[in-house]
Design a protein that fits this description.
The protein is mainly alpha-helical. Helix content is about 75%, strand content about 0%.
Amino acid sequence: MRPQKLTTEQMLNICALQLKAHGYAGTSIDMLAKACGLSKASFYYYYPNKEALLLKVLEHTQDYLNQHLFALQDFAEIDAITQFNHLHAKAVQFFSYEIKGCLVGIISLEAGSISTAIVQKIRDIFKDWQQCFYLIFQQKMDDHRAQILAKSSIADYEGAILMYRLNDDIFYLEQVKSRILQTLEQQ
């Protein structure tokens, strides 16, 4: 077997880029192996199939998001509005420049033709993001309203990210930010 030249993280990032560019159905093991500089047989040594690889990529993405994007500061020290501003800035950075930005949204478009394990992992990532919003909103409003706004904020962000990427116009993300801040400030 040919020695691996890349770290696991590098392989996952390269594979994430391929999956982001071509979608799950449009990405072959051969494409992934070539992108990593491996033979197909060597690639199978690390990942037995495309689903196993995608689950690892999504787990890696979820860990990153939970550590860097969804991690909130102590609310005793930083208020909800400041927390949200930090979250928004990190989200714009992630979805604009990070390797795995938009991967979850792109793969979720294929939900009807991918395994339940992958769909569940995608749901888990969105639930983590929703929980992050909920923790911010619950500082300013009752639990029921905080849950509703957390759910609708995910939908607003996903739509804004799509429009931002399609039009290369930050306006959409800034409008979501503005609406959420207005809601937080009115409470």
